[in-house]
């Protein structure tokens, strides 16, 4: 799952080395915290949060296959 998120986010940003992902897992939930360079925040969020929502949707769909809920 982490690889999926990083594969989506790294091509979007100007500073891919500054991208970090912290993941926590419980019995029924994955929790992901993504950090990017301040200059790249707008690119990852997108206009009106569209890119962020799309990333959440993809992570949620991938999490359904693993029978766990995803949270970001």
UniProtKB/TrEMBL annotation:
<comment type="similarity">
    <text>Belongs to the KhpA RNA-binding protein family.</text>
</comment>
<dbReference type="InterPro" id="IPR009019">
    <property type="entry name" value="KH_sf_prok-type"/>
</dbReference>
<dbReference type="GO" id="GO:0071555">
    <property type="term" value="P:cell wall organization"/>
</dbReference>
<keyword id="KW-0963">Cytoplasm</keyword>
<protein>
    <recommendedName>
        <fullName>RNA-binding protein KhpA</fullName>
    </recommendedName>
</protein>
<dbReference type="Pfam" id="PF13083">
    <property type="entry name" value="KH_KhpA-B"/>
</dbReference>
<keyword id="KW-0133">Cell shape</keyword>
<dbReference type="GO" id="GO:0009252">
    <property type="term" value="P:peptidoglycan biosynthetic process"/>
</dbReference>
<dbReference type="InterPro" id="IPR020627">
    <property type="entry name" value="KhpA"/>
</dbReference>
<dbReference type="InterPro" id="IPR015946">
    <property type="entry name" value="KH_dom-like_a/b"/>
</dbReference>
<dbReference type="GO" id="GO:0005737">
    <property type="term" value="C:cytoplasm"/>
</dbReference>
<keyword id="KW-0143">Chaperone</keyword>
<comment type="function">
    <text>A probable RNA chaperone. Forms a complex with KhpB which binds to cellular RNA and controls its expression. Plays a role in peptidoglycan (PG) homeostasis and cell length regulation.</text>
</comment>
<keyword id="KW-0961">Cell wall biogenesis/degradation</keyword>
<dbReference type="GO" id="GO:0008360">
    <property type="term" value="P:regulation of cell shape"/>
</dbReference>
<keyword id="KW-0694">RNA-binding</keyword>
<comment type="subunit">
    <text>Forms a complex with KhpB.</text>
</comment>
<dbReference type="GO" id="GO:0003723">
    <property type="term" value="F:RNA binding"/>
</dbReference>
